Amino acid sequence: MARAEAAIGAARYAVSIRTGNHQLVADEPQKLGGADAGPAPYDLLLASLGACTAITLKMYAERKQWPLNQAKVALHYLVENGTGRIERVLTLDGPLDDDQRARLADIAERTPVTLTLKSGLAISTSLS
User: One Pfam match, by short name (predicted)?
Assistant: First the structure.
């Protein structure tokens, strides 16, 4: 399954992330003391959900041979009264009928990352 490694060094909050054959940087914005050298952690979380949603919708539409030209996923993480939630808005481009659009919105509720986030996830921490 998925693996990642994150390391922080001399740069204040910049984190080097390695996952598979990919290298990226996460950081905090300047207003929080970072250098804004990369997306902040919650931005990466939203990016993961957005990527999973878009990929799943594309795969489903291809399997059904539906005319989905493009799927855009806009995400916003909000905290209200101490409770976090994510708003997700889908923009589906292509000559889809209302039933196809409704089905794709329904599929978005069951993508792998969506289900993981909705169900919660056990995290165990140990020292090496």
Answer: OsmC
Q: What is the spatial order of strands in the sheet that 15-19 belongs to?
A: 5-8, 15-19, 22-26
Q: pLDDT exceeding 70 applies to what percent of the chain?
A: 100
Q: Which of 46, 48, 45, 28 is nearest to 37 (CA)?
A: 28
Task: Estimate the crossing angle of helix 41-64 against helix 112-119, to 10 degrees.
Answer: 130
What digits encode the pLDDT tens for the residues 9-68?
998 999 999 999 999 999 999 999 999 999 999 999 999 999 999 999 999 999 999 999
Q: Which residue type sits at 22? A: H
- Rounded to 5 degrees, φ, ψ at 102 are -65, -40
**Tokens 């855009």 belong to residue:** 72
Q: Answer yes or no: are the C-beta atoms of 96 and 68 closer than 8 Å.
A: yes
